[in-house]
Write a structure and sequence with these properties.
Elements: H1 21-24, H2 36-48, H3 52-63, H4 68-82, H5 86-93, H6 103-116, H7 120-133, H8 138-150, H9 154-167, H10 172-185, H11 188-200, H12 205-221, H13 225-232, H14 239-251, H15 255-268, H16 273-285, H17 289-302, H18 307-319, H19 323-352, H20 357-369, H21 373-396
Helix pairs in contact: 2-3, 2-4, 4-5, 5-6, 6-7, 6-8, 7-8, 8-9, 9-10, 10-11, 10-12, 11-12, 12-13, 13-14, 14-15, 14-16, 15-16, 16-17, 17-18, 18-19, 19-20, 20-21
Length: about 400
């Protein structure tokens, strides 16, 4: 079981548009749409594409109309969000919700800003209020799903995310989250489908890299090694991608190619887990028991609760007739396996109950014991958010 905490940096406040910006971008001399909502959506796209000329024209189109000061503050707030000036953005957007036309745009913008500031409970309140006014608001569903996803409340996140995909099937960030949820629930078929849709929609940068990495995980779990290897080949300058490719080739009985890729990976970085796992597998196959034990020990110095590697180390000792070392490592392997089983059970309970801070405290403690410091910190934050929400409910009664 893996827990992957993903901030939705790719889930910007940009409204879901399917137009190509090169075709949509307003040209000099061309008239802008009359609809204020459409012009605001164009501004989102211009901001996303850093098109200063288009942004200026759109802002100018609101300056001579009613409540022009509101629109000026709104556009300023969007720019501040885009540049990371989050507190300043909240100040710019404050009070603009009284403008009926701007109201849904302002609420989504403030909620996104609060989300980035890790003020999740405040963001949830705003978004639920917006859904009370407009139950079909796409971005409210999108961001609420993302918040619940980050809190590990997958069961509660799924309906919001599915709503988004019904109406915006090309939403890459939403497909990515659903892919991760599929991996968590052991539904590799569903997971593969979602990650493939991320790639088909044209994902780039880190989102594309993460989608391919997780897609390869799901494909390997279903023994589709050839397809996984083909996907991974897109990132040939990464040691962990090369190492996982070598693992695929090894399982496809293309042993010489696997060894060559592993050498290439070692020249880049021979300290990552993917490299150590396939190196260890090859050493065990070649009956290099001492080298295998040395590889495992090196890895376990920084990853002491890696149960898979601990088990391999025990087997390497057994092959050398080192019975005392074997028994010690098997005992450690069993201890790590119990912690992992405990983590899986707590993950299941957290998924089912999005409001219990105690479960999240327990998850943080287990993650600490497993050496998963980032996950432990994530679960502590989730527990804190749950407690804040409890206090808010008590105060409102």
């Amino acid at each position: 079981m893996r827990r992957l905490f993903v901030l939705v940096g790719f889930l910007t406040i940009v409204s879901v548009l399917v137009w190509n910006w090169q075709l949509l971008a307003p040209r000099d001399g061309e008239s802008l749409p009359k609809s204020p909502e459409t012009r605001i959506e164009l501004f989102y796209e211009a901001l996303s594409n850093r098109d200063e000329s288009a942004m200026s024209r759109i802002e100018q189109s609101f300056r001579d109309g009613p409540r022009s000061e509101d629109y000026g503050r709104f556009f300023q707030g969007l720019k501040q969000i885009h540049s990371g000036e989050l507190e300043a953005a909240l100040s710019s957007l404050h009070g603009l919700g009284t403008n009926a036309l701007l109201r849904p745009f302002v609420i989504i913008s403030i909620a996104e800003t609060l989300y980035r500031l890790d003020r999740l409970n405040e963001a949830q309140v705003l978004l639920k209020g917006l859904l009370n006014e407009d139950e079909d608001h796409l971005d409210a569903h999108r961001l609420l799903g993302a918040i619940l996803y980050d809190l590990g409340a997958y069961s509660r996140a799924i309906p919001y995310l599915e709503f988004v995909l019904e109406r915006a099937p090309g939403s890459m960030g939403t497909h990515f989250m659903m892919g991760i949820i599929g991996l968590e629930f052991g539904d590799t078929t569903e997971s593969i489908d979602h990650f493939q849709k991320v790639l088909e929609a044209g994902a780039s940068g880190k989102l594309r890299q993460d989608a391919i990495w997780n897609l390869s995980d799901a494909l390997m779990q279903t023994q589709k090694y050839a397809e996984a290897e083909g996907r991974l080949s897109e990132y040939d300058e990464s040691s962990k991608f090369l190492s996982r490719r070598a693992n695929c080739l090894w399982n496809l009985q293309r042993r010489d190619e696997a060894r060559q890729l592993l050498k290439k990976a070692a020249n880049i970085d021979d300290s990552n887990r993917e490299y150590r796992l396939i190196q260890l597998q090859i050493q065990m196959h070649d009956r290099q028991w001492e080298q295998a034990a040395e590889t495992a020990v090196q890895h376990l110095q920084t990853n002491p609760h890696d149960a898979d590697v601990r088990y391999q180390l025990a087997q390497a000792y057994a092959r050398q007739g080192r019975q005392e070392d074997f028994e010690r490592e098997i005992a450690r392997y069993e201890e790590a396996s119990k912690l992992i089983a405990q983590l899986q059970e707590l993950n299941r309970r957290a998924t089912a109950d999005a409001r219990d801070p105690v479960i999240r405290d327990q998850l943080a403690e287990v993650c600490d014991r497993l050496g998963k410091k980032e996950l432990a910190e994530m679960w502590r934050k989730a527990a804190e958010h749950c407690r804040e929400a409890q206090y808010s409910r008590v105060r409102s009664q």
